[in-house]
Amino acid sequence: MEVYFQSDIGKRRKSNQDYTATFTNQKNQLLALLADGMGGHQAGDIASRQAVEEIGIAWEATTIDDSEKAVQWFLQHIQQTNQRIFEKGQSQPTLSGMGTTLEVVTLLDNHLALAHVGDSRIYLFREQRLIALTEDHSLVNALLKSGEITQEMAENHPRKNIITRSLGMPGSLEVDVAIHRIEDHDQLLLCSDGLTNMVSEPKITQILLEAASLQDASQRLIDEANAKGGLDNITVLLIDVGGESQ
């Protein structure tokens, strides 16, 4: 298995509030996380880093090597981290309202276990097809699903940045979890909306098909998002199931 990740500030932002990292537990099982923070000043930076590092460090102490146990662990620890981010946001005026999206994946027993909150995304790239494994928790997606707006309207909607779920919310947080079968030569893409708001899924597919390596694919995706305007931070994490470890 090969993993590569990269983050870019983009063309318009003054700071990068995305954060991504990987961790390995006591059974040598990889956990990959990606978060896109929100909030004034540096609050978004703090929320995204806290979510990734808190959950990642907790994973390092586990012996989990089963996908069913992994998703239950995700639900428990994401709830705990959500509460701590909320409490921190209440503790200082400069951190008020801070929050973050979160994508979490681990590959165990030929299965992918994932958790998802917000409008960052997880994709499966299999046999030249890009398959979305998550559904955006956003106002625009809710309007789209209800039939109130069209796909074309959604792409340029003025409230496109409003998300309906994030870590840092009060009370119990609804977290999407899933388990999917993984096949040889599958690739996984975790990304913030700084990529998907700028680059279409057909173009992402083309880049993944043509790239010589995960590093090449990552750089091309970020370059394409910046070429289209780079309106937000852009973060990409790629996993090649069939590659060699590095």
How is the secondary structure organized here?
Elements: E1 2-8, E2 18-24, E3 30-38, H1 43-60, H2 67-91, E4 99-100, E5 102-108, E6 111-117, E7 121-126, E8 129-132, H3 139-145, H4 151-155, E9 176-181, E10 187-191, H5 193-196, H6 201-210, H7 214-227, E11 234-240
Antiparallel strand pairs: 1-11, 2-3, 3-4, 3-5, 5-6, 6-9, 7-8, 7-10, 10-11
Helix pairs in contact: 1-2, 6-7
The Rg value, from CA coordinates, equals: 17 Å
Strand content: 25-35%
H/E element sequence: EEEHHEEEEEHHEEHHHE
Largest sheet: 6 strands, antiparallel
Compute the number of strand runs: 11
Number of helices: 7
Overall structural class, as computed from helix and strand content, comes to alpha+beta
> Residue share in helices?
25-40%
Low-confidence stretches: none
N- and C-termini, Cα separation: 8 Å
Shape annotation: globular
Summed over residues and divided by their number, the pLDDT gives a mean of: 93
Entry keywords:
alpha+beta; six-stranded antiparallel sheet; single chain; five-stranded antiparallel sheet; 11 strands; globular; 246 residues
